[in-house]
Specification:
alpha/beta; Purple Acid Phosphatase, chain A, domain 2; six-stranded mixed sheet; 12 strands
Length: about 325
Amino acid sequence: MTPGRSCPLHYRYAPADLARTDALHAECLYVIGGLYGNGPALDEISDMARHEVRPPVLVFNGDFNWFNIDHAGFNAINSRVLMHHATRGNVETELASEDETAGCGCGYPDFVNDAEVDRSNEIMRRLRGTACGNPELRRRLGALPMYLRVHVGGTRVAIVHGDCESLAGWGLSRENLASAEQQAKIAAWFETAKADVIASSHSCLPVLQEFSTRRGVGVVANNGAAGMPNFSGTRYGIITRIGVQASPHAPLYGTRLNGVQVDALAVRYDVERWHEEFHANWPANSPAHRSYAQRIARGPLYSIAEACSVTARRPAPVAVN
């Protein structure tokens, strides 16, 4: 199997494992997937948290490293993130591993082209070189869990980086959510995992979708990326906020479930500062520049309407441009 497309066995778990893990408790939860080493985005998220009525529980849902190949940036991101709860994404898992055969560990599906996969493997190779200079941080990254469980009020939230079967699974990506077969599988995940909300990020594009299950309604909330733009013509990241009280920040879209609000919040980081830091590490024609510079500057070809348009009991979003 081509490195970057494989999904190692140690990435796998069963949906029932999510039901058995001990739960954290919160009145407000931020799920922050895909920070990708963006320090200005981390600053903005910290500022957003300070404006909450009560301090939220912050969970960094994997891949908080990626573009931060400079030693100062690597140490700063990880030292700050590890002050909070975190899961390890494929990036952190591979950084902590001595086995390089999985490449970036992204588990890319067939619709991602080979050139993209090769560039991701090269980004991982360079980031691994930086991480090897800090063995203690590598140890701490490797010790992080693959998933977490948080109860927000009476709502049970399963936090997975990929999906309910694999750390690098794509089962909660927009492409797979459109499949009737996958929708049935996800409905079963809610029941087996004993979850009302499944929060994910690995597939890098946001989705909000409701499912009818035998236990009622379940919500998939994929935040896409906290550290990169998620929609065409935008320059902000997104996090998922789940709270008993309404957010002090206007949501991009959201839905209500079991007395809690599930919202996508914009992370309006300092764009100029981030562009300067990104280009210092990844100049023109470097692997990350070729794969991500256009998205960082202008966003992907994707819209809020698409994030909320997949079938299977689609929520009526509250949208604020």
